[in-house]
Amino acid sequence: MNYGDLLSEAFRITWRNRFLWFFGFFVGGASFNIPSTNFGGQQGMPFESASGPLRWVSENLILFLVSVGVLVLALALVFIVLAMISHGALTESVTALHRGEPRRFGSAWRAGTAYFWRVTWLKGLFFLMALGLALLIFLPVVLGVIAIFAFTESVGLRVLSVVLGVLFVLALLILVFLPFAIVNQFALRELVVGGRRVMDSIGGGFGLFRRNIGRSLLAWLVQLGVMLGLGIAMLVVITILAVILLGPAVALFAADQTAAAVVVGVVGGLLFLIPVFVISGALSAFNHAYWTLAYLQLTVPADRDAQTAGG
Question: Which of 89, 268, 269, 271 has the most C-beta neighbours closer than 10 Å?
């Protein structure tokens, strides 16, 4: 594999086809942060002394929490659906662009919807397999530590068991889930690019990794280093944007200009989210393109050799 060509082509495709960034944002794993509220203490129910909307919330707390929960679940479902569409859209589009075929947002969206159910089944099976592997790793260690705590009161042995257990779990997680993550990448491409069924795609992903262990692990190391560097650059850019866009709101709060600070903070926060979404989408699209091109470099030469031998 030519890793320099691989990186440069992934960058070129991602930069020249910015519609991929939309799909990249959703495959990047956008998440929700649900704030929690402390209802205990001597303060009573929250907002009980407030008026207007906050008072309504305090008087209809259960309805409010249920409504928020339903809204969060609905948004999570939408994000999951868009993520499954985006996996198929990115894989098919990058493959077509690599072959010199034109692609636009509409054609990428249609490809993503065409593969939606198969990608969903594939990702669901990998999730269940990951859950089973995690249980196999954590459960014996946890039971062993519990047994040591039950049969001895030695602080030294207890601390040693916890330390060794943590180290053992970390080593197994790396040993098991690193190949598992690479197989996950290959299986998706087997499904979309290779046109295989879901179970055949999983088997094909394992087979491709087994035949190319060294190159696959090196591809992961190259990707890790590049994404680490890009992530640090993204963090620097986001920090600068946060100071520029959110700094005035902080200054107004410090000057006791609460109303103005809220307005400036809301506007600055919305403006801040736009580049964050764009940058994260671009990075995720680049990462996805990298693995699609890596898959093509590993499989296309094999296909050409098979055709040559057949001729």
Answer: 89
